[in-house]
Amino acid sequence: MFSVTVRDQMMIAHSFHGEVFGHAQRLHGATYVVDATFRRVALDADDLVVDIGRAGEELHSVLAELTYRNLDEEAAFAGTNTTTEALARVVADRLADRVHAGALGETARELEGLVVTLHESHIAWASYERPL
Amino acid sequence: MFSVTVRDQMMIAHSFHGEVFGHAQRLHGATYVVDATFRRVALDADDLVVDIGRAGEELHSVLAELTYRNLDEEAAFAGTNTTTEALARVVADRLADRVHAGALGETARELEGLVVTLHESHIAWASYERPL
Amino acid sequence: MFSVTVRDQMMIAHSFHGEVFGHAQRLHGATYVVDATFRRVALDADDLVVDIGRAGEELHSVLAELTYRNLDEEAAFAGTNTTTEALARVVADRLADRVHAGALGETARELEGLVVTLHESHIAWASYERPL
Amino acid sequence: MFSVTVRDQMMIAHSFHGEVFGHAQRLHGATYVVDATFRRVALDADDLVVDIGRAGEELHSVLAELTYRNLDEEAAFAGTNTTTEALARVVADRLADRVHAGALGETARELEGLVVTLHESHIAWASYERPL
Amino acid sequence: MFSVTVRDQMMIAHSFHGEVFGHAQRLHGATYVVDATFRRVALDADDLVVDIGRAGEELHSVLAELTYRNLDEEAAFAGTNTTTEALARVVADRLADRVHAGALGETARELEGLVVTLHESHIAWASYERPL
Amino acid sequence: MFSVTVRDQMMIAHSFHGEVFGHAQRLHGATYVVDATFRRVALDADDLVVDIGRAGEELHSVLAELTYRNLDEEAAFAGTNTTTEALARVVADRLADRVHAGALGETARELEGLVVTLHESHIAWASYERPL
User: Fold this and answer.
1) DSSP per-residue string spanning A101-129
2) How far, in Å, CA of F108 to CA of E106, rounded?
3) Which residues of B touch E123 (CB under 8 A)?
4) Residue F79 contacts by C-beta under 8 Å, 6 or more apart in sequence?
5) Is the Cβ of B88 closer than 8 Å to some Cβ of chain D?
6) Which of C88, D36, E105, F13 could be a cystine partner for F29, CB 3.0 to 4.6 Å?
């Protein structure tokens, strides 16, 4: 199995609901350094997993919909906690939609799966892994 | 599949038995930067894999039983080599015991698995992965 | 010249004022991985620059006054932009006050200087350096 | 499942064929920081996944066949693009040959699998994973 | 003293002249992860060392003149070895020219100095520091 | 001012004397990831700060005198605490002796200074800087 990973980042504000979150129930923020990993069994005709330029652009475009925002005010997240693990799934699902829509090219339709990891600091990170 | 990882560290002294270890048969030591990864299929009602605060506390507590010690003198390790890979299992098994005992909360009982990685330097690390 | 550095983090929300900030004029947030470096010419009687335990506690305590907050609502920052470089100075100055007040111990009064670095992502960071 | 990883590097020149590569069709180069991960279900009699010294030596030896070279002139790569993902497979396959030939010792024959990751910068890396 | 650092990368091919370089006399390549640090005594009216967006763009633009090239064929480097330390100076001097030409804005003319660091792998890097 | 840095590591056991050290008064150990930085005003005739191969070998050789040892039993450290900052000076002074003895080559005699940094974990490190 082959994989290729690209890294980018986003900076958001949000707050959490529920006693378990302690001080994080207050409005605060985070930088997420975001890794998107694309997996496939065999390389394409160019010896690639995916066109890394397009992969980076699509990841950047997905993150552009989230960065420099207060997620508490985004309709898409109403009624949920935008925890690191939940946001990893949001990014992965939106990237998967773009793969399925052909935004990463025809051969990217042969990708097997996707992993998105959000690093919230030097001591904590979360991932979501899904098939494509 | 979701995962959340927390990072901590421990500093121990030990020596190894067996020709394969060369100079490491002498008493020496290591800092292990320790990553504990918790995995589950679906998030809990708070949109969490695990309460990251409790996860960090339990990892710290497991490491506190090992750090600032000469492992050659610990009864638990008599007759074994406390290699990085063997210690990864010790940490993972002790964390698993705490999950099963409820120390990470009720919803943590739904965790699927655990990975513990011990980084012994910038050029070497070891992991142990187990179901829960 | 000797130095010792300890690392911690904080997660804040804020917004910026001024066209130069573009999208960052919107409420957003950041994780700052924070390094505090203490410098002195000669080691103390224990062969230390500073008691690293106390240094870490005082850094943590300074960051606790900032983390999980919306800095736009903090009186201390009224009329200023809480840029990474400006926050580096805030953390450094508050640490310096604690050194002068004796919170890091008597021998810490012999420290020559302090550097605080705030990493806002994997591709950007800022520092403030001052004498003590 | 246990694993042990060792890290080394290589510095090569190459160019790519195909419009998808844009400016990378020109002769350029890369440093690859290379991680080789060895996996097995149970530890050997010395409590090891693999003799980490020999693992590092064999990885270094595999990389020595590639480093400080223009891969465009290597017969082994004629007609292929030496992308990061393709090179990850080359390194993994050559390491696997050495494991099978006994270069990592008799107990290394019980290894289950191998992962090789090539980091080409702070924002991009690729992996190849195979059984042994 | 304040500083702000931005990070980018370039991938080049080159060879060295002189026995001291051993195998590196052969055509090979490198990824350089490049950090550019801007220093000034006091912040500007926006509480900034430099507009980080423009700083990143100018660094990217300087690196675009070098990346995906065989430096052996660049007239600018005829008769010199494009060692990591020499390239750090090239990048720093070209950035300094842009600062002086006003490309980073009027207030950037108050910058005191510049440091450029090129990381050539996980175990080696070089810097060049100059006034502005 | 130019600089070049090389990285290596050592793994030692030791204990500390003095109440300030708490649990670290017990025998324990550490991995130190060690960075040695060489500084000079102008490059040599080969466009180098220092022959990086020789620099790495001399650093490795200095660390070989310390690694895989219990520093409590080394005569050189009798009556002192082998803190991270104190060990940074030991490594720097021993490297400086080698530079003065010509081990890094004739042109290395023109080096201006040396910095040695010992990283003891992901959250703590210490440096010692000296002229040559």
Assistant:
1) TTTT-GGGGG--EEEEEEEEETTEEEEEE
2) 41
3) 122
4) none
5) yes
6) F13
